[in-house]
Write a structure and sequence with these properties.
- By secondary structure, the chain is an alpha/beta fold.
- The chain has one domain (10-359): Metal-dependent hydrolases (TIM Barrel).
- It is built from 16 helices and ten strands.
- Helix 6 (85-101) runs parallel beside helix 7 (123-143) and helix 15 runs antiparallel to helix 16.
- The radius of gyration is 19 Å and the shape is globular.
């Protein structure tokens, strides 16, 4: 890896660097103050804390569980306050504002519409409220001098049976801001092959989709996501490292699945801090991100859940720089990897790479 010794990335400058985010959950990124305010307005009294700092600490501590299943439990509170059109619009709007403030120039934010029907909204009304929030957030971010493009991924819960409906929803809104489909939730016991009809529907309509795989369940889930479901990207995919053997002399051997992922340039939506919290890896320093990057897998940097992990894209980049000594050329490569892998038309991806990402990194690298 290049360390760019003449001008190593300083933390303050990393926060100014343009970023591309492919894996961020809307219900995992709320502002603690917003959770409290919506709860008070809607009468939800199940929160474990009553001020923003204590609530933020609770989410962070509860999510740091060493288990994906336990990591997902705190989402019951954020989902509970996202049941009305106004609440969904506000959360989506603030998501865009927070990402823009962190110099994110393109983001794909995902959420599960089926979890937001308790107050009587339809699936379409849920998506419309979120897209309206994104649109208003982008308008105001541009006016503030921090332009950002945000698109949506609609997610089906892998333990439920609505994936076909959600896939149809993705195609129905494909020209209104939804760029893809995803399945999420506990991996063990809920293989992606349970949702083959939904993936076939997406392929038949030339739709994009990513699949949460290789986070908690390892290589079999990655194999199923690619071989049977035809995923365009892997949500996390960190356990692909289990198919790589590194010898004492530094030489390596890729198993057949790892070779397929690298050779086919399958994007890995890696989320370092979240992977530590769920027990997928022991620490940032021991995260296989660096090995995968050195072996030229298509690695991307992501937040997963900004509230639960108490993180931002800048924080994730800073942690990687501190752990592995990355330079500006590395951060630019990870960012371009993500932009190349976005579910956005080619000309728009190329425009952001050539007109925004490369010029701004050139200035930062000096």
């Amino acid at each position: 890896m290049s360390t760019d010794l003449l001008n190593p990335p300083e933390h303050a400058l990393i926060r100014l660097a343009p970023k591309v985010l492919l894996h961020d959950h809307l219900d995992g990124g709320l502002r603690p103050s917003t959770v409290l305010e919506i709860a008070a307005a809607t009468g939800y009294d199940g929160l474990p804390a009553t001020n923003p700092d204590e609530l933020a600490a609770w989410f962070r501590t509860a999510a740091h569980s060493g288990s994906l299943v336990r990591y997902l439990e705190p989402f019951a509170h954020t989902v509970a306050v996202m049941q009305t059109a106004d609440a969904l619009h506000r959360v989506a709007y603030e998501c865009v504002q927070d990402l823009a403030a962190d110099a994110v120039v393109y983001a794909e934010v995902r959420f599960a519409p089926e979890l937001h029907l308790d107050a009587g909204l339809s699936l379409d009304e849920v998506v419309e409220a979120v897209l309206a929030g994104f649109a208003d957030g982008q308008r105001d971010a541009a006016a503030d001098g921090t332009p950002i493009l945000v698109r949506c991924l609609v997610t089906a819960m892998r333990h439920a049976a609505r994936s076909q409906e959600i896939a149809e929803l993705a195609i129905r809104f494909r020209h209104r801001g939804v760029v893809g489909f995803d399945i999420a939730g506990a991996e063990a016991g809920y293989p992606p092959t349970r949702h083959l009809d939904a993936f076939e529907y997406m392929r038949n309509h030339n739709g994009h989709f990513t699949i949460h795989a290789g986070e908690a369940f390892g290589l079999p889930s990655i194999h199923d996501a690619l071989a049977f479901c035809g995923a365009n990207r892997l949500g996390h995919g960190v356990r692909i490292v289990d198919d790589i053997t590194v010898a004492a002399d530094g030489s390596y051997h890729l198993g057949e699945l790892a070779a397929l992922v690298r050779d086919n340039r399958v994007p890995l939506e890696l989320c370092p801090s979240s992977n530590v919290q769920t027990g997928a890896v022991p620490s940032i320093a021991e995260h296989p991100f660096d090995l995968l990057a050195r072996l030229r897998f298509r690695v991307t940097v992501n937040t997963d859940n900004r509230l639960m992990s108490d993180t931002t894209m800048s924080d994730e980049m800073i942690r990687l720089v501190d752990a592995f000594g990355y330079g500006w050329s590395d951060l630019q490569r990870f960012t371009i990897n993500a932009m190349k892998s976005a579910f956005l038309p080619f000309d728009q991806r190329l425009e952001l790479i050539d007109d925004v990402i490369k010029p701004r990194y050139a200035v930062l690298a000096g």
